[in-house]
Structure formats: C-alpha cells, structure tokens
Write a structure and sequence with these properties.
This protein has about 450 residues and is an alpha/beta fold. It folds into 2 domains: about 10-225, P-loop containing nucleotide triphosphate hydrolases (Rossmann fold, 3-Layer(aba) Sandwich), CATH 3.40.50.300; about 240-435, Nucleotidyltransferase, domain 5. About 35% of the residues lie in helices and about 15% in strands. It has helices at about 10-20, 35-50, 65-80, 85-90, 140-150, 175-185, 205-215, 220-225, 240-245, 295-310, 355-370, 380-395, 410-420, 425-430, and strands at about 25-30, 55-60, 90, 95-100, 105-110, 130-135, 165-170, 190-195, 260-265, 275-280, 280-290, 315-320, 335-340, 395-400, 405-410. A hairpin with a 4-residue loop joins strand 3 and strand 4.
C-alpha cells in the first residue's frame, strides 16, 4: 500500500506543520472550495493507516453532518489514494467510528450543545492521539478546549506529538481572536499555525463553481466564502456599529454628567468583579478584581465611593445570582440599586422589550451609535480596550416571538462561549443606562456637573 496523494502548496504547508514536533494546533481557515475536507481526511487517515493502534477523532457540530458530508469526503480520499476502503477499514454505524485493519480507530464526534454539559466536559475523559475539528466556525470555545485536552494521550511519542487540525470558513468566534488576529499582527503563539486558503488556489475546482462563488449577490457571503475575508462583518443582528465602538475611545466631546458606579459582581467561576465609575456616559475609572468574597467586594466598592464622593444611591449592581447579597436586603450597602436583568422595564412603562436588560442594552447601543460614550479610562490601555471592543461587538438582537414584539439580546452564556470569558464590561455599560430611565435626584457628585 503506497498511496500517491498530490497536495496543493498550502496543504503541503499544513502537512509540514502536522509532522513537526512544535506545532499543536493548525487552523486551515479559508474560503469555500479550498480543499479543507480533503486535507483533514489526508492527515487523519494517513496517520491512522501507518501507525497501528492509534486513536483519532473527527468532530463536527452535528452528527448528521458527519454522516452526510464528512463520510463521503472520507470515501473520496480513499479513492484518490487508490486504497480500497472496505478492505482496510470497517465503519461501526452504531458507535460511529472507523476501525482500520491495523487496529487504529477514527471516532466521529458529535459536538452539539447539551444543557446537561454546557462546558463539554464529556470530552475530557477521551484518550486520543490526534484530532480534526471540521467547520470550526460552528464551535464555541469550550468544545474546542476540551477536545484539545483529549489529544496527545494515546500512543504518542516525543517525535509524534498530539496535534489538532481545525478547518473552517471565516467566523468571528474564538478562531478570530485566538488565531486569525494574532496571525495578522505577527503575534501568533509558536505552537499554533494559521493558513489562509482560497478557492482559486484549488485547480480541481471548475471555473463555473469559482464564478458562482465570485458572483454571489449577498455581499457578506461573497466576502467570507470567496474572498475569505475574516474582518468583513455585515451581521444585521449587531446593535453597535463597529466604527462607533472604536470612536468611543476618542469621543472627547462627550460632556460630563452625574457621578455613579456600575458593578458586575463575581464570586466564583471565571468571571471578574468589574467596577466602573462614570460621569454620565464618560468612563473615568475602572477596577477589576478576580474571584472575590463579600468583604472584598464591599471593600472595593467603598474605596471607589470614597475616592469619588459617590453616595450609595448612585451604585447599581447586577442582582442576578451572586449580586443579591450586596444591596439593602443584605444590609451591606444601604440604598444601592439592584439591577434585575429579567425584570420587566415597568419603571418606564416601555412595551416591546423582553426585560429590563434588553431595554437598557438597546438604549446603550443607540448611545454608542450616536457617539455619546467616551471610555476615557480605557483609551490608553490597549489590552483592556481590545477586550471591551470584543464584548460590545457581540451585543446582538434576537426576536423571541413570531410577532417580533418582544425585542431581546443574545444571552450572556452565548457571548461567554464565543469570547471564552464573561462580558463583564459590557454588562457594566448596559447597567449605566438604568440611571437615565429613572427619576433623577439632585446629587451632582464631587465635580459638581449636572447630569448629561
């Protein structure tokens, strides 16, 4: 058995990284028709056929896609390689794996979301030699991270280390933030590789197919699937204009308003305690603390109160879950305002929004788009500025009813899956709008400026 496989130049680059002793993750991310699936089949099955008793996975979001799309690509690869698939492999349709003649196995992994396993911990016990994620743009970070942890655990050697291939079309999920953007900026980690590929580089595609992609009427589809443009994003569900988000770090015209605090509370998990100090829609200070207990939270809030002479009635905090103990019921900070995300926006008698958070989020987006926010405290901090941009860029609308009467925003959990962290700063921004939909008091803060 001596398969003769002709690879394209960029596939050869991936082949090289697949066989070195440094690279752990390869993202082959390009346009439609760039031979991504053929590459995945080649790398996985060549290893499995030549290394007896090794284990691999091919993962997609839905098992049906593996059956309907990936399995035909596998059969095509065997035909091109001149290897009789039924002689050298057997497919177990009940447990969804290929068993090869030499004892190697390739498991087809269904990576769909399960309410009982939101962090995809079910992948943690697998012992895999190497793996391939197909259509990586459909995956969230936790699925990727736990599949990555499963490789390098079965018959690997110093010269045959664990590897993960991710094939994908452009998508602004963790692939954009962890691979494409660092690659573009020359900051990609040494054990990661990114290869951009395009349909016109594939000589096996017909001219008619390439022209169909090129002449696609939908601009977003054409930019992503023909031009392979990772930065193009015309998502109609996004609430904030990207240029307006960038402007918010240089909007020096924004007037000062009343001084107040918004706090996103965290006492467990991966979230941070984030405290923002505002003068209207001007962010003048921000403090972040890792996982905190009640005393640390109260101490941090009181330090900010003292520093800027802010009364407790000008503090608002996320009251859902861990924030409940801070306010009047807990007796720690009297008069601090709890922000109940799922509460009805009855204080303004506003119909058409799913809950208070959705209403405030739409107001925040409107103010961003009108260039009425100035994140002064982040303007010179490139690290946290970038994180803030990422979070605000993920603020999107959804319609939960067929009649489109109740506007809503994408759940926080979904944003966390995309960014691999909680959008704590975004939550603080959304809560800031609460102060402008309730009756104002006469307090003007230490600087004496009226409310915007």
């Amino acid at each position: 058995m001596k398969p003769q496989i002709e690879l394209l130049p960029k596939q050869l680059r991936a082949f090289k990284y697949w066989h070195d002793t440094l690279t752990k993750v390869i993202v082959y991310g390009g346009a439609k028709g760039s031979a991504k699936s053929f590459l995945g089949c080649n790398l996985i099955f060549m290893d499995a056929l030549t290394r007896p008793g090794t284990h691999y996975f091919i993962a997609r979001k839905q098992l049906n896609d593996l059956r309907n799309h990936t399995r035909p690509s596998i059969r095509e690869w065997f035909n091109v390689a001149g290897i009789p698939i039924d002689t050298y492999s057997r497919f177990d349709g009940r447990d969804n794996f290929y068993e090869l003649h030499n004892g190697s196995r390739i498991y087809l992994i269904d990576a769909k979301d399960l309410p009982s396993d939101p962090l995809f911990e079910r992948f943690g016990s697998m012992q895999i030699t190497r793996g391939w994620i197909e259509e990586g743009g459909q995956f969230n970070y936790h699925a990727y991270a736990n599949l990555l942890l499963s490789i390098g655990r079965w018959q690997n050697t110093p010269d045959f280390i664990g590897k993960l291939l991710i094939t994908c079309n452009p998508k602004k999920n963790f692939l954009y933030h962890d691979f494409y953007k660092p690659f573009k900026e020359g900051k990609l980690e040494a054990d990661k590789q990114f290869i951009q590929s395009f349909a016109w580089e594939n000589p096996f595609l017909t001219e008619d197919y390439i022209n169909t992609l090129k002449n696609t009427k939908d601009e977003t589809t054409r930019q992503r699937l023909f031009h392979g443009n990772w930065d193009y994003d015309n998502d109609p569900t996004k609430l904030c204009d990207y240029d307006a988000i960038l402007n918010s770090f240089d909007n020096i015209h924004v007037r000062r308003g009343e001084t107040r605090i918004t706090a996103d509370i965290a006492t467990h998990g991966n979230d941070d305690l984030v405290i923002c100090v505002w003068m209207g829609r001007l962010l003048i200070d921000i403090e972040r603390l890792p996982i905190s207990g009640g005393k640390q939270i109260i101490g941090a809030l009181n330090r900010m109160r003292k520093k800027y002479n802010i009364p407790p009635s000008h503090i608002i905090y996320d009251a859902d879950g861990v924030g409940n103990f801070i306010g009047k019921k807990g007796g720690f900070i009297e008069q601090a305002k709890p922000f109940n995300n799922n509460g009805r926006p009855s204080i303004v008698k506003k119909e058409g929004y799913r809950n208070l958070k959705a209403y405030c989020a739409y107001l925040f987006a409107e103010q961003i788009n009108e260039n009425n926010y100035y994140f002064f405290a982040l303007a010179d901090d490139e690290h946290w500025k970038e994180k803030a941009i990422q979070e605000i860029d993920q603020l999107k609308s959804i319609h939960t009813d067929d009649d489109l009467k109740n506007l809503d925003i994408v759940p926080k959990k979904q944003i966390k899956n995309i960014l691999n962290r909680s959008p704590d700063f975004l939550d603080c921004c959304i809560m800031n709008e609460y102060f402008d939909i309730v009756p104002k008091n006469t307090y003007k803060g230490i600087y004496g400026y009226d409310h915007v």
